[in-house]
Amino acid sequence: MNYSDILMAHFKHPKNQGEMQDASGVGEVGNPVCGDMMKIYIKVEKDKDGDDYIKDVKFQTLGCAAAIASTSMLTEMVKGIKLKDALKITREQIAEKLGGLPKEKIHCSILATEGLKKAIAQYRGETIEKTEEEKEVEGEHC
Ligand code: FES
After folding, report:
1. How far is the CA of 57 from the centre of ligand 1 (A)?
2. Please, which of 23, 26, 36, 71 could form a disulfide with 63 given CB 3.0 to 4.6 Å?
3. Which domains does the chain have, with CATH numbers?
4. Is residue 64 annotated as part of the catalytic site, yes or no?
């Protein structure tokens, strides 16, 4: 597999990996393409404007190198920002920051963005069974 040096660095030394005991929200997502799993924990607090922001974030996964690296990168991108801004981060932006993802591995980054969406939804007391992106990759293959 042709992975960039940045991606390999995040895979070998993932940032923010582990469990969070006092999470404000937890998002669990399964990849419909390969069956791999992701759990994302967020700690939410109010910033000086009174807006919710991500004070801390952690993840656990049973996924491939691309999934681990994508989620590691996402956690670095969302730490310290408002929830509404964290929700705007796309899989394309993550892939770009990782120096690109091989085409057949693009679906792996879904675990990161959709796990985060579900964690934020849980914090807000909402339920998402399946996000639009999850439905979108259902027909893809590894
Ligand atoms: Fe399953 Fe990448 S997340 S193959």
Report:
1. 21
2. 36
3. 5-123 (3.90.1010.10)
4. no
User: Separation of 67 CA from ligand 1 center, angstroms?
Assistant: 6
Confidence of residue 2 (pLDDT cuts 50, 70, 90): confident
Model pTM? 0.92
72: Cα within 13 Å, side-chain hemisphere: 19
Give 98 Cα–ligand 1 centroid separation in angstroms.
Answer: 16
Residue type (1 letter), 59:
F
Encoded amino acid at 6, one letter = I
Identified catalytic residue from 108, 110, 112, 116: 108
Given pLDDT bands bounded at 50, 70 and 90, which one contains residue 40? very high
> For this structure, is 34 an active site residue?
yes
